[in-house]
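Sample pair:
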Amino acid sequence: MAVVSTPATLEHAVPVMDNAEVLRIRNDFPVLNQLVNGQPLVYLDSGATSQNPLSVIEAEQEFYEQRNAAVHRGAHHLAVEATEVFEDARQTIADFIGADYAETIWTSNATEGLNLLSYALSNAGLWAAQGRGDQALRGLALKPGDEIVVTEMEHHANLIPWQELAFRTGATLRYIPIGDDGSLRMEQAESIIGPRTKVLAFTHASNVLGIINPVRELTALGHAVGALVVLDACQSAPHLPLDVKELDVDFAVFSGHKMLAPTGIGVLYGRQELLDILPPFLTGGSMITTVTMERAEYLPAPQRFEAGTQRISQAVALAAAANYLTETGLDRIHRWEAELGQRMVVGLEGIPGIRVLGPAAGQERIGLAAFDVEGVHAHDVGQFLDSRGIAVRVGHHCAQPLHRRLGLTATTRASAYLYNTTDDVDRFLEAVAGVRAYFRA
């Protein structure tokens, strides 16, 4: 198969990755060097969970071998060293996304970050009703008549917390619809986002469609009416350069396990001035200044939102993952994955009975493709591919409303990363081409 050129919008003056470099990169990922059902593993499920390079595995192991102790809670040598590497990791991640140190909050994952934010906004209303906080806090409180706006393509993690916030506060949840090609109906967004909009939450890149949304345009619409803008960066932070200040969003979330790090670690970014007035979500130790038997006073961010024993080794490993991506070059990674994504879409569109979701070939997308095989359930497709050593994702990908809008209940999704080669994609396409014949569809 001929290599498909990258769309012009992705051309950058950066050194181009190629298969030879990717094969060297693969040596850093021990899990990829194995056989599955007698075939070399082709891992195309990084959109769900990525694999870990040796440097990340070793960073977490080294912490437990040399520095394991509670942070912020002791004056002994190990506790001091643990605290230093923990907070150094925070600075690394802040730099990675263009944020300030105190604007970077550890969470277990992006889902927790979004729930933290939605409950903090709920608590803003409770505090305001009880006379706690200042006028700025009262301005964050939602009430009946206010509106929360999301999009029709959201992952459940960026939909359900806002549904529940609307339920708790009496606000109304609205959404920006998509067209048949999966793109947002921006002409409707301009009328949906209005004076009553208090929160605008949307994904940077869709985990199903592969589409990259117009963040700056949406953010401008939200800020023009005084809304808080929340960005789900789970499918962008691992794959393309992310600068939250340049994008001008108020909050952003992403998960470590999608960007070469372990599970159990994620990040919530928030503007300092907003974090310092928001009430905390979890309460307890490590996030207080003074406690009496009647009430407590809370530290500023980030500790304000980090109650209890923290995810120390995971944070250290996430910083190692960020360094790995930075050293490889996120511009280069994005360009390579865009090429792989185009290769997937061109190949899939050429197979009879295949419907590809999202942008057509030649249009910008991240390195994933979700598709439907006529007459064959996605789970059967996934098992067929697994029998050939190819790992993909099947189901609704935590985006049931999006699938329903497109007339589907489930799809198969292949998602590439910096350790995938064009040969991986070609093996995948060759296998998909045999699915309908195998099942006599």
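The radius of gyration is 22 Å.
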